[in-house]
Known about the structure:
Order of helices and strands: HHH
Mean pLDDT: 89
Strand content: under 5%
Oligomer: single chain
Radius of gyration: 18 Å
Structural class: mainly alpha
Largest sheet: none
Amino acid sequence: xxxKWWHVGLLIALGLAILSPLxxxxxxxxxxxxxxxxxxxxxLEPAFEIIPDYVFPGVGNEALAxxxxxxxxxxxxxxxxxxxxxxxxxxxxx
Length: 94
C-alpha cells in the first residue's frame, strides 16, 4: 500500500494528540490577556461543547481523558474534512 500525503498528516495529528497532556497548563494568549485586563468574566460560554475542557467524559485518569479527547476530536475533524473533500471531488468530476 502506497502512503499518501494525508496518511502521513493523519499519523502526525494523532501522534500530537497522544502528546497533548504534555502541553503547557498555562492559559493561551487570548485567555491570559482577558485575565490580565479583567474582562475574562464577560466571556460567553460556547453554544455547545462536544468534548468540554478537552477531557473525554467517563475516563478517570485526566491525562488519558485528554489523550482520548484529542484522538476523538482529530478523527471527527479528519472524517468531516475527508467527506467534504470527497463530495467536492465527485461534484467536480460528475
